[in-house]
Write a sequence for this structure.
């Protein structure tokens, strides 16, 4: 193998890629929400209240943003025990969030708005569902992180992976706030 | 290639404190890690290229098949039955098979060849080499990008062999035809496979695009400021931006379509009768899909053409031994095209009942694209003007690109007018327009790139004589095929029809259609000649003996003939000047790595 010299760089390429990926995911939801706006301006649009549990899930995901922020802080201070606890809590909160959304779906369904019902309801299922998948993707990333933290053979000191995960986590959080406000206002 | 090399380069990225040191690795790469799951951007580029070539042969062969039907509607070809089976009973293509062939031809050429095969190949090959990077920002994601593309290819290939045939509602996959399995035989599992394949394809494009952008913004070598980058890199940058921003919107459109197909939702469906029976779906809008589709669909045509533009700019400057004319104007026009690309999608929808008031804006924005396009054409012409042109096959294909881009672009001004579009929409005029400006032009750019960078990829040259034959037959053939289609379109001959015999007014085109089909077969055969040249030259081509065969200024020619993973054996060279110092101060060319002399002014 030949000599490898230092690669000149400004910010870490993985972080950079993440920012572009977040732009990309944002475009996807812009696609959904603009489809929603277009559809809403046409005839036969049925307006209804969002399931109340969505407010609870909002609180959960906001809390999880706080915990992952603390996790990052503790990692940098090398409080590994506290770090492990915090990412576990974050991952659990992520799953609780997804469960809340799922309960929201069944509430919608029991109030006579199934997936194959009016288009306005179908949109809620699809938009919230796709967002939920993105949150669960974050949970998977945290599980990987968790596994790494318990490895004894290799110790990691680079904060980049956890920084990337934290940024992504805040992103899906903000995305949810946007969606919630959007779906509440544009009914 | 080796994980270890990747890991090392990453570690260096992470703590780039220590100076360069030698890594002594004496491990052999296995066949799998070198040729299959390679993480070397150069190998991934070759994988994209060869997969693209395979798809191009299939996609082009499909066009030969349906041209047989269009050119000789009454003839029978018994050999067709032996390859297509019940899709060509008695040697005549069935209507269902015809629609499947047309749909797959579009899908394959637009996405699998001219998107993945073109920007996948050359962005991968050239971005690290020309900006001076060891590899992509994330070699693993890059590898993943290819394998998602491969998976998408497998699924699409599988859909060709299912009993009800592949998707056949047109490459745009408009609902309701694509949303209802009962609507036609080509709307059954074929569409599901099509959507699955395209979802995988979108993932592949996003992974690739992320990498391209973060590599070229972040990992340029010392001295390589943005305005010192070759235009190829600029064009790959804008291509990637377009892809990253528009493919997700397409994906959301596909997700809604999939829900309509399988979850009983009504995003796109309303008041539909199938075989006299009303469906329950209510409240949907088929036009909504068109908005989502064309929001990608229009940027998609620039995703196809921008890399070709970039490579043509580079090849024209190198082969005419002159600096590119109007470097900054070239970047500015790429940027303008990139912005306008997002604002013109509704010009595909002028006849869908779009508000004419809204249409006026889309006409204006569409016609505005003529401005940056004309700037680019002007700059290409002034670049070769009075140049000392070396007519290599790459140079010829670049000049051919400029020719087809002009003639195809001019008809775009007709189609961009909403009032003329009422007459020309969905006629052969549209076919002629986009095949010349996007299909043929993009292929010419791709061929220019392949002939020009083949020595970098394989350390050998392609055969020039076959290259010249390939160029002239393809150029003349392309015009002979598509030029007459303008007349058919102006006469109102609609596209997508299986048989025109019931229209007596179009019988006048019978001979013309047969002529077009014959030329198609000749041009197709010539492309096979190119494929032969390509594969033959990989193994038997004339060997490259010098690092810089074209006397070019850019960094890729400073790497060894057979560069390993990491590209440069020693330090990455530092860049001191722009990429277009040709015929300067009495010198034929000055490499980018050469410092500006004391008596010299920087560009």
């Amino acid at each position: 193998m030949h000599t490898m010299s230092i690669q000149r760089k400004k910010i870490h390429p993985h972080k950079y890629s993440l920012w572009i990926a977040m732009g990309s995911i944002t475009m996807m939801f812009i696609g959904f929400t603009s489809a929603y706006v277009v559809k809403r301006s046409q005839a036969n649009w049925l307006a209804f209240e969002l399931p109340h549990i969505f407010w609870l899930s909002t609180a959960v995901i906001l809390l999880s943003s706080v915990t992952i922020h603390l996790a990052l802080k503790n990692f940098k201070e090398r409080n590994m025990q506290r770090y492990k606890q915090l990412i576990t809590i974050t991952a659990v909160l992520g799953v609780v969030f997804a469960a809340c959304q799922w309960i929201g779906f069944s509430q919608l369904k029991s109030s006579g708005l199934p997936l194959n019902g009016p288009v306005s309801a179908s949109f809620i299922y699809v938009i919230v569902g796709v967002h939920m998948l993105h949150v669960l993707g974050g949970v998977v990333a945290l599980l990987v992180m968790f596994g790494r933290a318990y490895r004894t053979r290799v110790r990691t000191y680079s904060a980049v992976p956890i920084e990337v995960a934290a940024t992504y986590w805040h992103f899906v959080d903000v995305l949810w706030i946007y969606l919630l406000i959007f779906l509440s206002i544009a009914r | 290639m080796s994980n270890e090399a990747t890991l090392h380069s990453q570690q260096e990225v992470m703590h780039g404190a220590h100076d360069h040191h030698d890594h002594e690795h004496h491990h052999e790469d296995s066949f799998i890690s070198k040729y299959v799951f390679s993480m070397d951007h150069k190998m991934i580029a070759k994988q994209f290229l060869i997969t693209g070539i395979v798809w191009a042969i299939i996609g082009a062969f499909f066009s030969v098949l349906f041209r047989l039907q269009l050119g000789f509607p009454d003839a029978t070809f018994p050999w067709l039955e032996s390859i297509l089976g019940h899709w060509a009973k008695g040697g005549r293509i069935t209507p269902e098979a015809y629609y499947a062939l047309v749909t797959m031809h579009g899908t394959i050429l637009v996405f699998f060849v001219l998107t993945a095969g073109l920007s996948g190949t050359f962005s991968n090959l050239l971005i690290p080499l020309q900006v001076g990077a060891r590899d992509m920002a994330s070699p693993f994601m890059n590898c993943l990008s290819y394998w998602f593309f491969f998976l998408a290819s497998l699924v699409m290939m599988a859909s060709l062999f299912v009993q009800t045939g592949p998707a056949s509602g047109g490459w745009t996959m408009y609902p309701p035809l694509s949303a209802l399995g009962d609507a036609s035989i080509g709307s059954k599992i074929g569409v599901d496979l099509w959507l699955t394949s395209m979802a995988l394809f979108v993932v592949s494009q996003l992974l690739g695009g992320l990498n391209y952008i973060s590599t070229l913004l972040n990992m340029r070598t010392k001295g390589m400021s943005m305005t010192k980058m070759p235009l190829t890199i600029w064009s790959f940058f804008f291509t990637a931006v377009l892809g990253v921003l528009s493919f997700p919107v397409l994906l959301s459109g596909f997700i809604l379509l999939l829900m309509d197909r399988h979850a009983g939702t009504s995003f796109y469906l309303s008041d539909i009768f199938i075989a006299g029976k009303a469906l329950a779906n209510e409240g949907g809008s088929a036009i909504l899909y068109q908005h989502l589709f064309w929001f990608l669909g229009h940027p998609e045509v620039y995703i196809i053409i921008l890399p070709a533009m970039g490579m043509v700019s580079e090849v024209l400057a190198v082969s005419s031994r002159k600096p590119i004319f109007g470097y900054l104007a070239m970047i500015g026009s790429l940027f303008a095209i990139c912005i306008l690309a997002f604002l013109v999608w509704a010009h595909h929808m002028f006849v869908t009942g779009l508000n004419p008031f809204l249409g006026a804006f889309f006409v204006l924005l569409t016609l505005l694209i003529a401005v940056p396009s004309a700037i680019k054409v002007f700059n290409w012409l002034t670049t070769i003007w009075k140049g000392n042109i070396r007519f290599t096959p790459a140079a010829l294909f670049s000049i051919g690109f400029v020719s087809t881009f002009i003639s195809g672009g001019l008809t775009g001004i007709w189609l961009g007018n909403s009032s003329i579009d009422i007459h020309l929409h969905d006629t052969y005029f549209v076919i002629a327009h986009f095949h010349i400006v996007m299909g043929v032009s993009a292929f010419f750019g791709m061929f220019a790139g392949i002939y020009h960078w083949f020595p970098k990829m394989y350390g050998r040259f392609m055969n020039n004589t076959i290259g010249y034959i390939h160029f002239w037959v393809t150029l003349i053939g392309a015009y002979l095929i598509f030029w007459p289609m303008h007349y058919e379109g102006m006469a109102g001959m609609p596209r997508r029809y299986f048989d025109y015999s019931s229209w007596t007014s179009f019988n006048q085109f019978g001979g013309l259609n047969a002529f077009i089909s014959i030329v198609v077969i000749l041009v197709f055969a010539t492309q096979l000649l190119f494929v032969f040249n390509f594969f033959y030259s990989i193994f038997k081509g004339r060997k490259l003996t010098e690092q810089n065969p074209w006397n070019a200024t850019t960094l890729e020619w400073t790497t060894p003939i057979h560069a390993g993973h990491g590209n440069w054996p020693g330090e990455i060279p530092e860049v001191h000047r722009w990429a277009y110092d040709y015929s300067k101060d009495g010198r034929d060319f000055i490499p980018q790595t050469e410092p500006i002399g004391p008596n010299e002014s920087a560009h």
In short: Chain A touches chain B through 45 residues (CB under 8 Å). The domain at 49-185 of chain A is CATH 1.20.120.80 (Four Helix Bundle (Hemerythrin (Met), subunit A)). Chain A has five helices and no strands.
